[in-house]
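hey so u asked for the seq, here:
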Amino acid sequence: MGLFQRISDSQLLPYTREIVTLHDGGELALDCLEPTDPRTTAENDDRLIIFLLPGLTSCSQTSYVKSLVLAVTKVGATAYVLNNRGLGGVALKTPRTYCATKYEDVMEVIAHLKQKHPKEKMIAIGTSLGGMVLSQYLIGHPVEAKENFFAAMMISICWDPLAGTRSLETPFVNKYIVNYTLTSNLTELAVKHRDVLQRRDCWDFDKVLSSKTLREFDTNFTAPQFGYADVLDYYKDGMVAKRVHHFSIPVFALNAVDDPLIPGDYLPMKEAELEGSNLALIVTERGGKLSQ
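ran it, structure tokens below
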């Protein structure tokens, strides 16, 4: 996943796209890429399905996502990439986006995949925000998760949003480059879908667009949208480090000590070492956020 493995934005992968209509009328795109080498393609009963949940504003054509997808299909697995509402070129149909704690959309997509592939084994991979959402699902529905997946992987996820936002607010690189970029991407998405989002009266959209940090954006947009009292309430609900004992399947997690969004001191290393833990945590000294 290092820079030398990254794929340029101009090199688009030839996904097969399916539009999934959600229970509230919202839509999202589910992109599929099959193995290209018939020698690596297994029979249906033995075929492996990889369900990939990308990061904050990433989609199936984001560079690191494409790198993951090609690695998966190279070994004979079929890759499905979830594009969150409003991403991947799909119009936002309802005034609801996504966040780190709500996984209803993910559950609907999982049910859809199980209907399409009732016999195939499935692994879920979540990167950054996608890993946070996947963790919430695994914790909230351990029995169902065990029925649907035999393993999961988390890459560069923020185990503690409170610690993560504090880290993003420290100068210089974290605050003025990483935090600024993440916030700019989110406000641009809000501008793009403003006409639909303004159907709701839970926010002051001028404040949303004036957000300068991730904490400000979550205060003005994310927390009120999903019914939280304030941003602190939202971040507390997003903390999964102390709840990994609820994982019912093997979970392999990869984090770097120098990740600006989750410093090494806040990784659940002690929890991973507990007897009976299903979490295997791999920690590298370097790597940042998704090797960026």
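The mean pLDDT is 94. Residues 173-192 form the longest helix (20 residues).
lmk if thats what u needed
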